[in-house]
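[job 4417] fold queue: 2 targets
>>> target A
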Amino acid sequence: MKKMLLAALAAVLCLVSCEKAQTNKILGTWEAEKIYLNVEGFEMAVDIKEVSGGSISLTFKKDGTATMTERIEGESFSDTCDYSYSNDILTLSFEGESISIPTTITGDILTMKVTPEMMEDEDIQGNMKIVWTRR
């Protein structure tokens, strides 16, 4: 009985620590580098800095909030939302709605896979991949 209790406790601790470790992996500021997308059957890679002349960053904080900041042509725009990250799914919640995005982190590279249904954009026919680098 004692062994079963210890095994169950170990399993629970492992699950809790794994979830916390994954959440901690996403903390910090990430800068969008490239977007890979399919527009009307044409696949392309877009360099964010080159196309926008600015930058897009996403900062994840320990308090469960994330802030996206766009800096374009000397102007800066920010928006904040709530987030959670578990089992390679990033969920962003704002204005009563939420979106869940498959997201992987390898070292200092964060990759989001966005589907046309998430974007609600008729021009995007295939999946879109956004690659971010940790700053």
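>>> target B
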Amino acid sequence: MNRVTIDLHALKHNLGTIKGWMDQHPATWTVVTKVLCGHADTLRALQVLGVRSMGDSRLENLEAIDRIVPDFESWYVRVSDLSSVAKVARFADVSLNSEVEVIRSLNDEAKKLDRIHKIIIMIELGDLREGILPGSLVKFYERVFELPNVEVLGIGANLGCLAGAVPNVDQFTQLALYRELLELKFHRKLPMISAGSSAVLPLLLEGKLPRAINHFRIGEAIFLGTDLVNGGSLPTLRNDVVLLDAEIAEIKEKGLVPLSETAVMTPFDSESDESLSPGQRGYRALVSVGQLDTEIGGLTPVDPRHRIAGASSDITVVNLGDDPNGLQIGGTIRFRVNYAAMLRLMSSKYIAKIVIPSLSEFKETLETDRQEIMPAVESLEQQTSG
């Protein structure tokens, strides 16, 4: 069976590590769960692990989180559009915004619900995605800060999500100055600069991020451990939280290079291995996962001896080398995933998703750990108070 596995112990490790980084800065943070596509057991695990602020870009997922995880702070991390403001005001405590007309509509909807909706004003700093231009910031803020049912928490930015602009210290220094300008002009505190993301974590770890950047929206680093700037994984983070097990449908020794003329007949990109020579043979496995299920280019076999040869909509071909190494029909080949591959897998109705261990077993483990550590904590507290 093809399945995505979410390792809860690895997830716990990454959450704890990143929390330590946030506490040291210090900053508050929101776990961005959009890549989970509303997967209930993983959301419950996040709650068990103490996560109380979650963000998503799909209102359907925020509705699911609201049902599954009561008593949490919800962030809508996609800029709101007019057709969605009623649901944004209902299901999100905080949203990111860059249009006055939308914010006014959010104010009207929040008034109907007798609540205050909090917003972050997004500023364009070079990634060319959402955000107002810095030159219009004062006028923009002046038009929204007196709306009675909207509270401006602060300002924010998104970097590295579209154009691949690498975040730099100057951009964040500018944000801090923009907040200072607004506070001085309007005599009103803006407590938050929400500009941290997985792409900003390298700057944080290098100690270069200005202290004024005090809120992060983190997703990819939690689930994949990715260092988006330098490649590979961030220090001490695990890259095996999410893995794909793909079932083997066929194993045969075959030629590895086509002997006849080839042409571009497939709608999908194929892999080419220039180290292979005509007539070369080896074992090939066919696994029953294809481009319909995920971004095949985002899969990496866990076993370094394996190489993806190509994929169609339903099948992926994996070169195993000169020896199948015990793999059999009905067994699985395991893959690491990048963000694009994980996103498509989690949204696919054809792929099973499970947490390991089960949520009940995981809770029991956490309770056992808590009982074992509490005497040491109490002893330390007594020594400190003494």
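[job 4417] complete. Note on B: The longest helix spans residues 359-385.
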